[in-house]
Amino acid sequence: MGILKTHKSFDDARIRKFPILFWFLLVFGFICVFNGLGSAPFLSQFSVRPHHIAGLVICVFLILKPTITLPPISIFLFCGVSIITTLINLQAWGVDNLIFSYLWGAVAVLAVMNCYSQLPREFREKLMVLLAIAVWAVVICKWIAQADTYVDFFQHRQTAKPRMLYFSAGGLNLEATWLSLLGLFLLKYPLFQGIYLGTSLFISVTYMSRVGMVACVCVLVWSMIHSKRKLALALTFGTSLTASFAAFVLLTWLLSVLNNAVGLTPVTQIFEETGHRITADARGIRSRFDIWEASWEAFKRQWWGYGSGNAMKAVQAIENMQAVPTLYTENNVHNLYLQVLLDGGIIGLAIFVFMCVRLVANNIKSLAKNPYAAFLLLYCAIALLQFKGADAPMVFVLGMYLVQDEGNTRKLITFKNPFSSIHAIKSA
Fold first, then answer.
1. FRET partner for 332 with CA separation of 20 to 30 A, picked from 9, 111, 266, 316?
2. Is residue 319 part of a domain?
3. Chain segment 262-271, per-residue pLDDT in tens
4. Is residue 3 part of a domain?
5. Residue among 341, 304, 298 at smallest CA distance from 88
6. How many angstroms from the chain centroid is the CA of residue 383?
7. To 5 degrees, how large is the angle CA 249–CA 255–CA 261?
8. If you average pLDDT over each of 81-90, 139-148, 243-252, which comes out highest?
9. Structurally, how many domains does the chain consist of?
10. Concatenated DSSP letters for 146-176?
11. Are 107 and 55 in contact, with CB atoms under 8 Å apart?
12. Does 32 map to a domain?
């Protein structure tokens, strides 16, 4: 399909100057998506993950860049408000890891946008295509390796979601969401994109991730609108989705035979139960309404915010909501805008909404040629149902979005890099 075909841009002088930059960005993007892999304690109550370290290490490449381009001032303003509200509420509500994630996110956006701008345009596209393929391959292999877990889950129906290993922080919901959103970058390869989205939708269904399914359908609709080979995309999507479910049915039967299982739930009933859980699982829907109701009550008590990451602490403190058990099993309010409102108050939300509105205004006419903008816009839409803030995959794509279009770059502040001059003198 030509996805991995060597391009003449490999000979570009910028690639020769930064021989490992492309692969480092690719690895960084990979661990941003799978940001739940490993952690180390930091100051006793916080944790440091591989993507945090990689985001700081990538800053080393900035030394070689003659000029440095800064992210929009609104990002720094948002971080400033987050710091101030956190310090104001330090004694009453404590410090959450999210404030460090915001600060890391600002640094990571700075590093990614300056490093990504060094790559030739053709190479930039291939970076995201390879990232999508790598993430898809890992998730598929992981699903196959734990197939018996899924079959047991659908047969016996003892838990709300399959109890299986996930690589993305936030659980199966976020893993399915990131997998689906990365499909945006495969628009030029309709045959593979159809296979990718078909299997991604199947995985979202088996993960019991309604948000993942919504994300996948949105990506499919966007791709069908803008693809030059709509029929090929539709046919491969339908074939891939059908083949995935057929393989699942066959796998269920084979495992039942191998395990000499007796009295297992028929396959038709498995799918009926799956559909019921997805469309009528009142527990998950009710818990979100409970949290949103309590969030509004918490905001009315302290409109200036509780500090980054303290939203759920404030929600759990609402007296008439303390009897709701779901409030004690969540670490975010399942609505990024409410999360920001409680964390950073009215000022924090105003800055965040300004960034979202500006994103929409700048790209509403260019979505067909800008999957980066489409990724971020879908992120803003899905944020009505999940996300806590400073999500690593969003930070990674945001850094690339800011410099992949010359119109965006012209609006940013650029200054001469003093460290690059020092490096040049030493080299001479």
1. 111
2. no
3. 444 455 555 6
4. no
5. 304
6. 10
7. 110
8. 81-90
9. 1
10. THHHHHHHHHH--SSS------STT-HHHHH
11. yes
12. yes
